[in-house]
What does this fold into?
Amino acid sequence: MIPIAGFNCVQSTNLGRARYAVPLRLSHSTETCCKLVPAFLIILRQILLQTLQAPLSCRVYLVLGWAIVCLTLFPASTALADNYNKEFLVDVDFSGQVLTDSSFTKANLRGVNFSGADLQGVSFFGANLEGANLEGANLSNATLDTARLSHTNLQNAILEGAFAFNAKFDGAIIDGADFTNVLLRYDVQDQLCEVAEGINPITGRETRETLECF
It folds into this structure.
C-alpha cells in the first residue's frame, strides 16, 4: 500500500468488473493512478501558493495560466495502458476504444467486441479470443502468441508486425485483413492462405499478398 495525500493506492483486484457493466472506458490501473496523483498534487499546491500571494488583479490570470499547464500535462483524451491479465471479460464491449499497449495476457475474451478498436502494441498472449469481433481493429505490433482466435472475426483488421506464433486461427474470418510482417507458423500460414481474400480498406493491401500466398 502506498499512502499519498490521503489516498491509498493498492493493487486493484478488479473483481466482477465485467459482470455488472459494459463501460465505454474501463478504469485505469491503480499503478497508473499512483504515478499521476503526486505530480498533480504538486502542481495544485503551486497554483494555490502563487494565487494567494499574488495581487488580486493578477489572480485571474494566474488561475488561467495554471489551468492551461494542467490541461497540457494531463489531457483528458490521453489513453493510458490498462492491465486485464487473466480477467473474465466474456462478451464485454470494447468497440471503438483506444487500448494501446494494454495487456490481456491469458484473459478470457470469448465473444468480446473489439471492432474498430485501437489495439496497437496490446498483449493477447495466451488469451481466449474465440468468437471475438475484431473487425476493423488495429492490431499492429500486438502479441498474439498462443492466443486462440478460432471463429474470430478479423475482417479488415490490421495486424502488421504482430507476433502470432503458435496462435490458432481455426475458422477465423480474415477477408481484407492485413498480415504484413506477421510472424506465423508455416502450417498456419498455409491454412490462412486457403481462405484469404479481399483488400484492406485502410492500407490498400491484398490479404493474400500480405500472407505471401503463392
